[in-house]
Amino acid sequence: MNAMVDPRGGRLGRRIAAAVLALLWATIFFGIIDLTVVIVQNLDFFEHYLLETGWGLLFTFLVPLPLLAWAVRPQNWNGVQVAAVALAILLAGLVGLAPGQVVVGCLVAGSAALTGLRRPRLAGLRELARVACWPLDLLLLAASGVALFYGWEMLAAARDGVVDDNTNGLMHLPMQAGFGLAIAASAVAASLALVARSPGRRVAFVPAALSASWFGVVARAYPEHVGSIGQFGGTLAIFWGVLLLLTAWATGWLTQHHRQAPTNTP
Fold it and tell me: Is residue 243 part of a domain?
């Protein structure tokens, strides 16, 4: 009887459900399959290598990894990060008039709700404004600006009738816009976890950093393909991903050191 009402049992059930959902996003929603299109050189999707990669990264890393991390060790940042990615997908679907994508955004948000989603503290935003965080702030601002521009370009391409691919009846160009926004949103959510000193906070940066760098590699290899950001843009994306991880580590050390430093009292 006690086991039926034990909150730890409820938490275990949600952890299992989160792991299962993560695997479903990566498999049934073709995350891993689309991600490997370039790796196996599937020429049926040659012109859409970048769009397939974006879809694959979104539903292999940006959505599933925080869910899997929460399933292994429940933390406060996981649900916020998945919710941020869901918002990116949802906004791109709304602006791009893609109702199916709006539904997907809501489903991703539902996945975030499994984690016992908690609203991030506003104090985290004030902490990001501190001098010790300015390199991280610059990376976040750069990512947000590029994501908005890139997203608009992808939605414009969709409106102009650029030949597109679809997965599960969903077109890739509007989802590609959501992918760019999701990288920035994921990084912002990770930064809030960092300044709040949440457990596993440095792991929170892995989905965005890995996605940006991976996409940059493919963009450099196929600079003229639909959805590519070119060789120069690809190089910047690779460096941004690496710098994000390094800056997150340095920022975490600086903010922790600042809080532990003794204050001089008269």
Answer: yes
Say which amino acid occupies 74. P
What is the CB-side half-sphere exposure of residue 165 using CA atoms within 13 A? 19
Predicted pLDDT at 117: 76
Domain membership of residue 107 (yes or no) is yes
| Three-class secondary structure of residue 22 per DSSP | helix
pLDDT at 52: 97
Token reading at 31? 């995350």
pLDDT of residue 179: 98
Buried b (16+ CB within 10 A) or exposed e, 38-63: beeeeeebebbbbbbbbbbbbbbbbb
Positive or negative, the CA dihedral 44, 50, 51, 55 is positive
Please give the model's pTM, rounded to 2 decimal places.
0.90
Q: How far is CA 59 from the centre of its chain?
A: 9
Are 51 and 227 in contact by the 8 Å Cβ rule? The answer is: yes
- Give the pLDDT confidence score for residue 129 in this predicted structure: 63
State residue 85's pLDDT score: 98
Domain count, the chain: 1
The whole-angstrom separation of Cα 218 and Cα 30 is 18
The answer to whether the CB of 232 falls within 8 A of the CB of 110 is no
In a domain, 265, yes or no: no
pLDDT digits 0-9 by tens, 120-133: 665 555 666 665 57
Does residue 155 belong to any structural domain of this protein?
A: yes
Domain with 74 in it: 2-260
Give me the residues of the chain with pLDDT under 70, please.
1-10, 119-132, 253-266
SS3 1: coil
- Asked whether 86 and 106 are in contact (CB, 8 A), the reply is yes
d(CA 258, CA 44) in angstroms, rounded, equals: 54
